[in-house]
Specification:
By secondary structure, the chain is an alpha+beta fold. The protein has helices at residues 30-42, 47-63, and strands at residues 81-87, 94-100, 108-109, 115-121, 124-131, 143-151, 156-159, 166-170, 177-183, 189-193, 200-204. The chain has one domain: Jelly Rolls, CATH 2.60.120.10. Fe (ii) ion is lined by residues 109, 111, 167.
Length: 219
């Protein structure tokens, strides 16, 4: 779950500038997207309703991706890259772009929050798992793979705790992929699962953003 509140608020980044184009701006841009999420959360609905409505907004945003600036499309040959696009001033959600070179994958991990993923460009494979044990041992788990899905441009996937939030995702294609992720908390720590040994390990995660100056970090 989230750590203690940070002492200093991080800058909020709005990648609303359009790429080098003279075409008219998208009808539904990034600031519209953020506003739509805020309006959903203002109603304090259930997580199931949140993911349904945020998924619809994410699909709409990913239909025309000119809102995403070039710095937030840059990957790294050594690991996939997480760019922070927006952090809610009330700490209710964050929005990231993730850039995946061919072959880059996450370990199996959880989130402890709702989440929605949409594809800006390319395709990602998502493999989902059920936890068979009762979670009473913080350092041990038993997992069962439930399904594997390819999510392509225009598609979305979601996380819905407590049962639908353990997965691994990765780029199994031969070209770079860019995905958009919304999480219902500042996702700075997750659990990583080893399906062979059953070991559960907490892992700190960071953003890479040229404006913020954080260092790149694998998951
Ligand atoms: Fe994830």
């Amino acid at each position: 779950m989230p750590g203690p509140p940070e002492t200093a608020p991080e800058p909020t980044i709005f990648p609303t500038f359009h790429r080098m184009s003279t075409a008219s701006p998208p009808a539904f841009g990034f600031s519209d997207y953020i506003r739509s999420i805020e309006q959903v959360l203002d109603r304090r609905p259930s997580n199931r309703i949140i993911i349904r409505e945020v998924s619809a907004a994410t699909k709409r945003l990913c239909r025309d991706d000119r809102w995403l600036q070039e710095p937030f499309r840059q990957g790294n040959p050594d690991h996939y890259t997480r760019h922070l696009l927006h952090k809610d001033p009330q700490n209710r959600f964050i929005v990231l772009s993730l850039v995946w070179q061919p072959g880059q994958v996450t370990p199996i991990h959880d989130h402890a929050c709702w989440g929605v993923m949409g594809l800006v460009d390319g395709t990602l494979e998502e493999i989902c798992y059920d936890r068979l044990d009762d979670g009473s041992r913080p350092d041990y788990c038993e997992l069962e793979q439930t399904r594997g899905t390819d999510v392509g441009k225009g598609g979305v996937a979601y996380l819905l705790p407590p049962y639908e939030e353990i997965h691994r995702i990765g780029n199994t294609t031969d070209r770079p992929t860019i995905s958009l992720h919304v999480y219902g908390r500042d996702l700075d720590e997750i659990n990583v699962f080893d399906p062979v040994t059953g070991r559960v390990s907490p892992m700190r995660i960071k953003y890479y953003s040229p404006d913020v100056g954080d260092v790149p970090f694998v998951i």
